[in-house]
C-alpha cells in the first residue's frame, strides 16, 4: 500500500541564495552520490522532504546527483496518464511537469521550479497557471527548451513525452521498492522515510545527518573510483 500522511506543512520557497545543481563533472573527475526522493508531488510528506533537502543541497550540492522518483500505480484505464496517482490526476500532471523540467532545463532551474510549485501550495501543484508561472520564475524558455512540448504547451501535463516519463518513473519506483512518499534513497538504498513523521532512519533524519551520510558515501565512492 502506498503511503502519504496528511502532515501539516508551511509552504516554503528558495530565496535568492544560490544552490548550484549544474553538472560539474567536466570540472572535477569525481563520482556523485545518487540521492533519490520517492515522492508524490501533492503529498505533504514530499514537500517536507524537499524542504529538508533544500537545506542539504546548500551544503553538498556539488557532491550529489539528486532526482525525484514518483510513487503511483500503473493503470491503463486512466485516460490521460495511464497512471493512478493518490491525490488525483492533478498530481499526475504535477509529476509530469516536474519530470519534463528535470529533463529539458538546467538542474538549478528544475529545483527552483519544484520549489516554486511547492510555495504556491500543494493543492495547486499540477495547475496550468502555476506551471506557467513557475516556469517563468525559474527562467525556463517554455517553447524553445522542449519543456512546453514535453508537458503539453497548454501546461496540462498530458504531453506524450511527459506521460511516458511519468510511467517510466513509476516503474523505477516499483523496481526500487518505494511504497511511501517520502522515501529517501542514497546510492539506491532507502535510508529514511517521512510518513507523518520520520521513520526507519537508522542514521538520523536532520539536515546534518543527511549531509554526513552524503559526505561519507561521497568519500567511499571516490576512494573506490
Provide an overview of this structure.
A hairpin with a 2-residue loop joins strand 5 and strand 6 (189-194). It is globular, with a radius of gyration of 17 Å. The chain has 225 residues and is α+β, with helices and mostly antiparallel strands. The strands form 2 sheets. Strands 2-1-5-6-7 form a 5-stranded mixed beta sheet. It has helices at 44-60, 89-104, 107-120, 128-137, 147-151, 160-176, 207-224; strands spanning 33-39, 64-70, 73-74, 83-84, 183-186, 189-194, 198-199. The longest helix has 18 residues, at 207-224. The N and C termini lie far apart (38 Å). The protein is built from 7 helices and 7 strands; from the N terminus they run βαβββαααααβββα. Helices cover 43% and strands 13% of the residues.
Quick take:
This protein is α+β, with helices and mostly antiparallel strands and 225 residues long. Helices cover 43% and strands 13% of the residues. A hairpin with an 8-residue loop joins strand 3 and strand 4.
Could you tell me the strand content as a percent range? 5-15%
Radius of gyration: 17 Å
Could you name the ranges where pLDDT drops below 50 across 5 or more consecutive residues?
Answer: 6-20, 23-27
Q: Mean pLDDT, rounded to whole units?
A: 90
The helix/strand series, from N terminus to C terminus, equals EHEEEHHHHHEEEH
Strand order of the largest sheet: 2-1-5-6-7
* Shape category: globular
How many individual helices? Answer: 7
Amino acid at each position: 500500500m502506498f503511503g502519504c500522511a496528511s502532515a501539516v506543512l508551511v509552504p516554503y520557497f528558495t530565496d535568492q541564495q544560490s544552490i548550484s545543481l549544474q553538472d560539474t563533472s567536466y570540472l572535477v573527475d569525481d563520482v556523485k552520490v545518487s540521492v533519490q526522493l520517492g515522492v508524490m508531488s501533492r503529498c505533504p510528506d514530499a514537500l517536507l522532504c524537499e524542504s529538508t533537502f533544500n537545506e542539504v543541497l546548500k551544503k553538498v550540492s556539488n557532491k550529489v546527483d539528486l532526482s525525484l522518483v514518483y510513487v503511483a500505480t500503473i493503470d491503463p484505464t486512466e485516460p490521460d496518464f495511464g497512471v493512478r496517482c493518490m491525490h488525483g490526476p492533478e498530481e499526475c500532471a504535477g509529476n509530469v511537469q516536474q519530470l519534463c523540467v528535470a529533463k529539458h532545463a538546467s538542474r538549478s532551474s528544475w529545483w527552483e521550479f519544484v520549489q516554486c510549485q511547492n510555495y504556491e501550495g500543494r493543492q495547486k501543484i499540477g495547475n496550468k497557471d502555476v506551471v506557467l508561472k513557475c516556469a517563468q520564475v525559474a527562467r525556463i524558455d517554455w517553447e524553445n527548451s522542449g519543456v512546453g512540448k514535453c508537458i503539453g504547451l497548454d501546461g496540462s501535463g498530458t504531453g506524450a513525452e511527459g506521460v511516458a516519463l511519468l510511467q517510466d518513473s513509476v516503474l523505477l519506483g516499483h523496481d526500487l521498492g518505494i511504497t511511501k512518499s517520502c522515501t529517501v534513497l542514497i546510492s539506491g538504498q532507502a535510508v529514511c522515510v517521512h510518513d507523518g513523521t520520520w521513520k526507519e532512519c537508522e542514521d538520523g533524519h536532520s539536515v546534518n545527518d543527511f549531509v554526513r551520510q552524503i559526505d561519507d558515501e561521497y568519500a567511499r565512492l571516490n576512494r573506490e573510483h
